[in-house]
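Hi Prof. W.,

I finally got the FAD/NAD(P)-binding domain-containing protein prediction working! I wasn't sure whether to trim anything, so I left the full sequence exactly as given:
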Amino acid sequence: MLVLLLAASASCLASFASAFVARPSPSLSSSLSRPTTTTTTTTTTARATTSTLLRMEVIECDVAIVGGGPAGCTCALYTSRADLSTVIIDKNPASGALAITSHIANYPGVDRSMSGSELLDQMRAQAVSYGARYLRAQVFMIDVVADDEAGDERHAKTVYTPDVTIRARSLVLAAGAMGRVGKPIPGESEYLGRGVSYCATCDGAFYRDSAVAVYGASTEAIEEALFLTKFAKVVYWITSVDISMGTDAGLERNKVLDQGLLRQLLECPAVRHMERTRLIEVLGDASGVTHVRVRRPGSDDDTTIEVEGAFVYGAGGGSKPITDFCQSKVALDEGGGVIVDEDMKTSVDGVYAIGDIRNTDYKQVVVAASDGCIAAMSIEKFLNNRKTVKVDWIHK
Ligand SMILES: Cc1cc2nc3c(=O)[nH]c(=O)nc-3n(C[C@H](O)[C@H](O)[C@H](O)COP(=O)(O)OP(=O)(O)OC[C@H]3O[C@@H](n4cnc5c(N)ncnc54)[C@H](O)[C@@H]3O)c2cc1C
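And this is what came out:
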């Protein structure tokens, strides 16, 4: 474990260390058809120099699914019904492609007035009703020992999050394709892990009584900013668009955001909202981030704000497969998509990839759900050493 930890990036290690700081867990429901095994293990982090010891919860299950979009939820629905203990690990139910889709007019059987997030809520609830456990956490690293090298090790696939480690017999990659594209903001890459972060739930606790900036106008950014208000003295929420000023354009944009969360954030005394303001640069020194530079349209003078952390969220996300947490452990194609065979198997035995993370031309909810079904049936065959897939509608 220690070797793995040392191999992780500075940001990942920061995330691990943050698990040690008491903070509210954002986990949602947790019901199981077959009980997963939960243990607590003691391990060390990069902060071991200060003799810090972590008590890390470890969950053992049959199927770990990274990503709670339509692909992950459908897969979980099928594996749970097949009596395989299943854990979905999802960064944020509001940040995936389906979650930000205002209306779904082409998912069979669903009324065209239904929003993407409503459809996703139903998919998640259905998977949970069959016994899947939904954990809200950001995965930052996986470890995938192929089964032929695992020997007697039954739970040979490991998924790391700041609070919990999941050890599974099979692993499904379903993190979608909302990854960042385009050029980062100047200073963003330089200070990544040294004050720049993409995960408030991972790193927020480092900013107790500090000033931080959150950049982005999505529901994800709002949720992350709200989380930071638990720790930071001041949260500068910077949006390049106007959201709350009561203008027509602001109201239109407003509609796609979670109104309750938006109100909560704007009413929070620690929040300073800077509308129609662009984040131009993240500044710092050897200690990490010290300031951000922002600009309002029509103004020649930039403003520099003193902060210790800058949390950057693209408005609506990008379109790159999210595979950074895989760290080259599965084969990718030239476009960055995970390569799979017709059973959704990746280059590593026992590891599957479904939905937009495959980066095909067919990025659709119905395709993601279909991938999830195929992977689940393939996993059932694999874990139960069957020669053929078991179809659950053939009833005797
Ligand atoms: C604006 C927009 C409109 C669209 N409209 C339609 C439409 O009308 N009809 C249609 O069929 N399709 C539509 N699509 C496409 C469709 O939404 C996607 O094809 C589908 O959602 C893909 O499902 P997925 O489960 O692979 O990924 P996603 O839906 O993106 O879900 C991925 C999940 O993984 C989580 N995640 C990401 N990284 C991590 C991590 N490190 N750790 C843990 N969890 C992680 C995310 O939080 C998210 O919950 C639209 C897409 C967009 C962007």
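Residues 66-72, 89-93, 95-98, 100-101, 104-107, 138-139, 174-176, 178, 322, 325, 355-357, 363-366, 368 surround flavin-adenine dinucleotide (CB under 6 Å). Does that look reasonable to you?

Thanks,
D.
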